[in-house]
Amino acid sequence: MRIVILGSGISGLSTAAELLRDKHDVTIVSAEPITATTSFLAAAVWFPTAAGPVERVRAWSETTFEHLAALAATGTPGVRMCESTALYRGEPAIPAWSRSVRSFRAADQAELPRGYSFGFRFAVPLVEMPTYLPYLCDQVDEAGARWVVRSIHRLDDLDDLCPDVVINCAGLRAAELVDDPEVYPIRGQIVRVANPGLSMSLRDEAHPLGRAYVHPRANDCVLGGSLDLGEWDTTPNVGLTQSILARCRDLAPALAGSQVLETLVGLRPGRSEVRLELDTSALPGVPVIHNYGHGGSGITIGYGCARESAALVADL
Questions:
Q1: Which end of the chain, N or C, is less packed with Cβ atoms under 10 Å?
Q2: Closest by alpha carbon to 283, among 195, 170, 159?
């Protein structure tokens, strides 16, 4: 089938890869290069964040986890399994995501930074998007995808491409494309610093200054972060940068002397529930599969959503 995919972030490229594997004719339409997508900026550690509904997200997450773990095992550029610790000041309940990760256990007291009484240790995929996203783009290119650089304001702007199916992976742009009032931005600010030798990913979702995470990569650490619902401003907030640095140094004191490389802001595509469904009314005569609204879970559920999108195409 002739399939047009809107969007070149992790959702669009993952969906393209699956459909090309199924021997479809795929065209990717995007107004911007992959380096300008929110996906390219993402810290990209597997961890369900700001996405629903719960049961569908769990299924997509588990499918994606196994896919990314397999990529890590085969040495795919930018993908590795990362030892991680979730930190708590009070005794926590066992989190729902614990059944989906590897090597889950309670942390020993000696493994916790000062000020923390409890923690869970586990291993999850970490994806360095500046490495992995270009790799995935190359895989899609080699499999025969075509690219069209174009701004789309309505779905019928695609009529000249004569699609049999359109897959809408447009993220925040979906609000305009299909008049979906449920779509909203989730502003995320992160700080990149030089890595002082850390290998453990750390997070405290309830830090007094705001959620905190430290994700070490090959040449830097990504520190975060924020989940600012409804905020469109992509200008870095200096005060927030200082707050992120302070809270992340509580998690990893070794960061105290690390050089700040840059501050980045991205807008995640929020929605009360991920929209992944077949729509036969959005574009007369052409079925549309919506795959957007992943919130802060793009890397966590992206492959699972791509597989379900491919299954919907197969049903057609």
A1: C
A2: 159
Quote the CATH superfamily of domain 2-71+127-183+271-315: NAD(P)-binding Rossmann-like Domain (3.40.50.720)
Condensed to tens digits (0 to 9), the pLDDT of residues 264-294 reads 999 999 999 999 999 999 999 999 999 999 9
CA dihedral 70, 74, 75, 78 (to 10 degrees): -30
User: In 73-156, which ranges are E strands?
Assistant: 79-88, 102-106, 118-127, 146-149
- Please tell me the distance from the alpha carbon of residue 160 to that of residue 139, in angstroms, as a whole number: 26
What is the C-alpha to C-alpha distance for residues 168 and 152, in angstroms, rounded to an integer?
Answer: 11
Per-residue pLDDT band for 70 (boundaries 50, 70, 90) equals very high
What whole-number distance in Å separates Cα of residue 288 and Cα of residue 5? 10
Q: Which three-class secondary structure state does DSSP give residue 70?
A: helix
SS3 content of the chain, % helix, strand, coil (to 5): 35, 30, 35
- Tell me which residue has tokens 């080699």: 142
Average pLDDT, integer, range 38-64? 94
Single-letter residue type at 42: A
**pLDDT level of residue 50 (50, 70, 90 thresholds):** confident
Q: Which residues contact 121 (CB under 8 A, 6 or more apart)?
A: 83, 84, 85, 103, 104, 105, 106, 107, 111
For residue 164, the model assigns a pLDDT of 98
Would strands 288-292 and 221-224 be described as parallel, antiparallel, or unpaired?
unpaired
In the chain, domain spans: 2-71+127-183+271-315, 191-270
pLDDT digits (tens, 9 = 90+) for 1-39: 999 999 999 999 999 999 999 999 999 999 999 999 999
What span, in angstroms and rounded, lies between the C-alpha atoms of 37 and 171? 10
Q: Please, what CATH class does the domain formed by 191-270 belong to? A: alpha beta
